Amino acid sequence: MIRLEGVSKRFPGAARPAVEAVDLVIAEGETCALIGPSGCGKSTTLRMVNRLVEPDTGTVRLAGEDVAGVDPIRLRRRIGYVLQGVGLFPHRTVARNIATVPELLGWPKARIAARVDAMLDLVGLDPAEYRGRRPDALSGGQRQRVGVARALAADPPVLLMDEPFGAVDPVARGRLQVEIGAILKRLRKTVILVTHDLDEAVRMGDRIVLMRAGRIVQADTPDGLLARPADAFVAEFTGPDRALRRLAGLTVGALAVPEPAQGAPEIAWDASLRDALALLLATGSERLAVAGPAGPMSLSLAAIRQVSATDGTAPA
Ligand SMILES: Nc1ncnc2c1ncn2[C@@H]1O[C@H](COP(=O)(O)OP(=O)(O)OP(=O)(O)O)[C@@H](O)[C@H]1O
């Protein structure tokens, strides 16, 4: 769906390229999280997809088409864009903000109004209560929800998200990551997400691309990145609590076995293994009871230990 081939960019006067020889393919319906230290080229990579930045060399293709040959305005109508702090128009109502692209596309008024309400519903805001408000009457998390609603309003197949939840407090942020991630999956959007937050990348990414100094160091599933860091830099970046992070990205269902564990503390099938471990430690139990989709199951501490034991250390 999105293909970057040998893409490089050096800004005028810069000592080294911001992005260098990046090859990356993002499949339709996939969420790809770009992560890495500040200044490693994440946002520049993202912006070359919607032509806010032009590459010096290489090509960016969208559904097979070289974006260099597509009029930028037309291109951006096919690509939703969500930024930190969103950039909502402050003097426009929530409804008018969400209607921005449909209005540009000349949709009839009734269709726009219906779409605005559907988008508000989608992101969990009651249309009757929120459509007439202005952005300054919203919480940070609500503003980000409106930002996502606006980006999705014209139903673009591709969504670019640059630190979308960076300005939101940690509690609201966790909820947004889970909810918005589920919506994007359900709608089968192809998403590039730029983030500083490894937990966000693990929660939302089907794949994580870790960059350093303009280059891709490792592109892998969240579990692959945490379990098998390609080198010492990746190991350091993912940190000493890599094993716990990994458990946060895996569900109880992945390890539960079809054996009843009567009387054991209960955990949900779709809870994370990190929550399961916390419950095992808090209760001192060796096993948890799981209500599986096809009957009672159990999850043992030993099984979690086994998964953690495969947590590779980086090759020297
Ligand atoms: N418009 C620009 N003009 C000149 N240099 C730029 C421009 N945009 C980015 N850069 C430089 O390119 C490099 C990569 O920047 P980029 O914003 O892509 O990094 P990033 O990984 O997204 O960083 P951060 O996480 O801090 O947002 C940095 O050294 C930055 O200073």
TrEMBL record:
<keyword id="KW-0547">Nucleotide-binding</keyword>
<dbReference type="GO" id="GO:0005524">
    <property type="term" value="F:ATP binding"/>
</dbReference>
<dbReference type="InterPro" id="IPR027417">
    <property type="entry name" value="P-loop_NTPase"/>
</dbReference>
<dbReference type="Pfam" id="PF00005">
    <property type="entry name" value="ABC_tran"/>
</dbReference>
<keyword id="KW-0067">ATP-binding</keyword>
<comment type="similarity">
    <text>Belongs to the ABC transporter superfamily.</text>
</comment>
<keyword id="KW-0813">Transport</keyword>
<protein>
    <submittedName>
        <fullName>ABC transporter ATP-binding protein</fullName>
    </submittedName>
</protein>
<feature type="domain" description="ABC transporter">
    <location>
        <begin position="2"/>
        <end position="238"/>
    </location>
</feature>
<dbReference type="InterPro" id="IPR003439">
    <property type="entry name" value="ABC_transporter-like_ATP-bd"/>
</dbReference>
<dbReference type="InterPro" id="IPR003593">
    <property type="entry name" value="AAA+_ATPase"/>
</dbReference>
<dbReference type="InterPro" id="IPR017871">
    <property type="entry name" value="ABC_transporter-like_CS"/>
</dbReference>
